[in-house]
Design brief:
InterPro entries: FAD-dep_OxRdtase, FAD/NAD-bd_sf. The chain is an alpha+beta fold and 403 residues long. Helix content is 32%, strand content 28%. 50% of the residues are buried.
């Protein structure tokens, strides 16, 4: 599957950071993690840190899949409002999802600072109503979050204009959000794991696996075999290839990044990510060197050739939307790209075993707008399942909720 089109900035900026070998011998280990992007890296890192013998495999070069196209907005705010989750499930589930995601931001911060030099920074998140019809929905969402102790502030139309120069009906300002270079974070995590004795192999494709009561046996395209106690499938949007059940919908999203912008033009955008209530939504954030990263214009295309042809048009549309919001801002695209992403019907991820493969095969489907936050949660959740311990998120993020 071709997961990206155009020139994803992280790959252009960082290149191939480290060299990892292909698998050329049979191996046995505690856990095989299939997928060496940001999700696989966070999960493998957590397992290795807690004493598990881990092997990580990827059919491409490390981080060369959807991680290279991620815009890496780190938020506790889920694409599905907490009030909508509460109506769909219950108040306790909505609270658990949002509180867990809030905690995950702090956990990612700890990992990023431990690794170092990954362009991590905390910031605020400004979520504005795209139109008058969304005002009441945002007001209800704000009331729920405030009542449940989340770090939020309500901004009226007047406050938005006075403090941010934005013309919108209202907004929710959250004080907890962050940004990171996901390609750099994942690459450095995997390199550090390798230095500490973990096995990382890229350009190694798994062609089949068989799960038994006590182990999983994998076969690669070069005829090598691996035997493990558990297999974690963290292949991003390609994980669906290992399931007969369709569990999410693949879509395409688009983004561009500017050259570095004068801080006097960026103003408050330097420390605040911006997104809106319309679906699909436009969003933007900055990088450590002052570039403006803009994304959105999602569509239901999952055909790489057609997506390729749309990149320039989509980037131009995003640029026009930025110009309407910020007429003073001169930040045209320097690099533009598109990529595959997936979403579930409720905006929540899927972590754990699926009945098709049994308890030895665990999936890590961190789908949705805040996939890296979900990946951090999944690291602890899957380790608990491998260690046969209970975890508060097991039920909420399980395949069983799909019916």
């Amino acid at each position: 599957m071709d997961l990206k089109s155009g020139y994803p900035f992280w790959a252009v900026k960082n290149g191939l950071m480290y060299a990892f070998p292909q698998l050329e011998a049979n191996l046995s280990c505690d856990v095989v993690v299939m997928g060496a992007g940001i999700t696989g890296a966070l999960i493998a890192n957590d397992l290795a840190k807690h004493g598990h013998d881990v092997v990580v495999l990827d059919q491409r070069d490390v981080c060369w899949g959807s991680t290279s196209a991620s815009t890496a907005l780190l938020q506790y705010e889920i694409d599905t409002h907490a009030t909508d989750l509460a109506r769909r499930y219950n108040q306790a589930s909505a609270l658990l999802a949002y509180q867990s995601s809030l905690r995950a931001i702090r956990e990612i911060e700890e990992v990023a600072h431990d690794v170092g030099d990954v362009d991590f920074a905390t910031c605020e998140s400004l979520y504005y109503a795209s139109n008058r019809a969304d005002h009441s929905r945002l007001a209800d969402e704000f009331a729920w979050r405030e009542q449940n102790g989340f770090p939020v502030r309500w901004l009226s139309r007047a406050a938005l204009k006075d403090e941010y120069g934005l013309f919108a009906p209202a907004a929710i300002l959250s004080s907890v959000a962050a940004r990171v270079d996901p390609y750099r974070l994942a690459s450095k995590l995997l390199q550090r794991m390798q230095q500490k004795g973990a096995h990382i192999f890229d350009r190694t494709q798994v062609t089949s696996f068989t799960a038994t009561e006590g182990s999983v046996k994998l076969t690669t395209d070069s005829g090598m075999s691996l035997t493990a106690g558990h297999l974690v499938i963290a292949c991003g949007y390609e994980s669906q290839n290992w399931l007969r059940q369709r569990v999410a919908k693949n879509l395409s999203s688009y983004a561009y990044i500017s050259d570095p912008v004068d801080p006097d033009q960026l103003r408050w955008l330097a420390g605040t990510m911006l997104w809106e209530s319309s679906r699909p939504y436009i969003y933007m954030r900055t990088t450590g060197d002052g570039r403006l990263l803009v994304g959105g214009e999602d569509d239901d295309l999952d055909i790489p050739a057609r997506r390729d042809r749309l990149i320039d048009r989509k980037a131009a549309t995003l640029q026009r939307k930025v110009a309407r919001l910020f007429p003073h801002l001169q930040a045209p695209p320097a690099f533009a790209w598109g990529g595959t992403f997936a979403e579930t019907s409720d905006g929540l991820p899927l972590f754990g075993p699926h009945k098709e493969h049994g308890p030895r095969v665990l999936f890590a489907l961190a789908y949705g707008g805040n996939g890296i936050t979900y990946s951090m949660l999944g690291a602890g959740l899957l380790r608990a399942q491998i260690e046969d311990r209970p975890h508060s998120l097991t039920g909420l993020f399980a395949f069983s909720r799909l019916g």
